[in-house]
């Protein structure tokens, strides 16, 4: 009750400071400073620009802030990022437990601006009049739609620069791609069917070795730069087909080891693919929810239900969930499409030793198989 009372008091103060003297149809939805507030000791605009960093206090969720393939997204986050760029500073994010926690931390000067439950509304502390005035002057009504359009584009297949090749190079000859011999070579040490790696590769890049995503993933297996560093793959070699596939196989092997508690190999493969796409921590969160509800957390169909539910506040805000929101439908779809394509590749025999197919002319179009 104590925290709730504090929150009510602070929220009332913020609301009071946001009411304009004259009602305007295009008033910006930002908090304004209380002219009578003593701002001594608080980081205001000058100090923020001198330090080069602005701190956003926010919640986890699609309208607020979440991580996706190594990139920060969320409507409120993208607005704050846009504002930070206008000030020439970097943006640091602090994820809070709830709205009351955000309000208390803003009052304690642990952050500079705060996301609110009203989408498109950021609040600067009343102890920071210069920052609040700058925020008010900067905002334009169209910014909200701009960042929403930006996010929609980034989450679509249109944001991936690639040529789209056929899912079968030579169906009659039983050749999936120009890289069949590499899939066969590097799938062996991790005991994967090389055709499964081929199916995953098509899902990732449609066999384009130069594919690049907006988040920075590169090459045939769409490896992120930070992951490449951990796999000791030099960034300048990420587009090299053999090195990219070799690094991806190594990463798949590492994920296999992290799911050794799943005894059934076919089931484990689904978890590995899901972790490759959505991140191992999110998959472990889904497994924890599944186990809590009395279901077998080593069966993918059970856990997949919770992967999908991690896009709902009831689940990603559950105390048992450590890593928050996940675009679960994408991860579930990713696993399903690779499994379906693998079934279609099952009748393909091992490639001839030393086989290297001639290059084929690519054409640009949107793939119906989304990343």
Span between N and C termini? 46 Å
- Rg, Å, rounded: 24 Å
Computed structural class: alpha/beta
Strand content: 5-15%
- Annotation, overall tally of beta strands: 6
Query: In which order are the strands of the major sheet placed?
Result: 4-1-5-6
- What is the arithmetic mean of pLDDT? 85
How many H/I helical runs?
A: 15
- Report low-confidence residues grouped into runs of 5 or more: 1-38, 354-371
Share of helix, binned: 40-55%
Question: What is the global morphology?
Answer: elongated
Report the order of strands and helices: HHEEEHEHEEHHHHHHHHHHH
Q: Major beta sheet, specifics?
A: 4 strands, mixed
Short descriptors:
four-stranded mixed sheet, 371 residues, disordered N terminus, alpha/beta, elongated, 6 strands, single chain
Structure explained in plain terms:
The chain has 371 residues and is of the alpha/beta class. The protein has helices at 2-18, 45-51, 75-87, 99-107, 129-138, 143-154, 180-187, 194-205, 225-230, 241-258, 265-278, 280-292, 300-309, 313-316, 328-345, and strands at 53-58, 66-68, 71-73, 90-95, 113-115, 122-124. A 4-stranded mixed β-sheet has the order 4-1-5-6. Strands 2-3 form a two-stranded antiparallel ribbon.
């Amino acid at each position: 009750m104590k925290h709730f009372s504090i929150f009510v008091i602070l929220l009332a103060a913020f609301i009071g400071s946001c009411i304009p003297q004259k009602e305007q149809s295009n008033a910006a939805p930002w908090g304004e400073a209380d002219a009578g507030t003593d701002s001594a000791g608080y980081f205001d605009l000058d100090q923020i620009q001198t330090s080069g960093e602005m701190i956003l206090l926010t919640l986890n969720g699609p309208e607020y802030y979440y991580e996706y393939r190594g990139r920060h997204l969320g409507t409120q986050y993208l607005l704050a990022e846009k504002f930070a760029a206008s000030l020439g500073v970097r943006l640091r994010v602090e994820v809070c437990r709830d709205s009351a926690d955000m309000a208390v931390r803003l009052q304690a000067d642990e952050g500079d601006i705060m996301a609110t439950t009203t989408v498109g509304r950021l609040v600067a502390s009343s102890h920071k009049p210069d920052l609040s005035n700058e925020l008010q002057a900067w905002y334009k009504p169209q910014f909200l739609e701009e960042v929403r359009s930006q996010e929609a584009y980034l989450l679509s297949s249109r944001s991936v620069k690639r040529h789209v090749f056929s899912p079968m190079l030579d169906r009659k000859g039983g050749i999936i791609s120009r890289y069949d011999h590499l899939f066969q070579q590097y799938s062996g040490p991790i005991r994967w069917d090389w055709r499964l790696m081929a199916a995953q590769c098509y899902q990732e890049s449609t066999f384009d070795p130069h594919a690049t995503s907006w988040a920075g993933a590169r090459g045939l297996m769409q490896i992120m730069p930070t992951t490449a560093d951990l796999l000791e793959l030099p960034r300048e070699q990420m587009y090299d087909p053999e090195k990219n596939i070799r690094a991806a196989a190594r990463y798949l092997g590492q994920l296999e080891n992290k799911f050794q508690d799943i005894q059934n190999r076919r089931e484990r493969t689904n978890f590995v693919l899901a972790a490759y796409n959505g991140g191992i921590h999110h998959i472990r969160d889904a497994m924890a929810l599944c186990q809590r509800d009395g279901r077998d957390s080593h069966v993918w169909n059970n856990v997949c239900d919770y992967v999908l539910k991690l896009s709902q506040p009831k689940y990603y805000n559950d105390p048992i969930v450590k890593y928050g929101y996940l675009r679960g439908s994408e991860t579930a779809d990713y696993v399903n499409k690779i499994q379906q394509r693998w079934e279609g590749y099952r009748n393909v025999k091992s490639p001839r030793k030393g086989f290297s197919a001639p290059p084929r002319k690519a054409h640009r179009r949107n793939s119906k198989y989304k990343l």
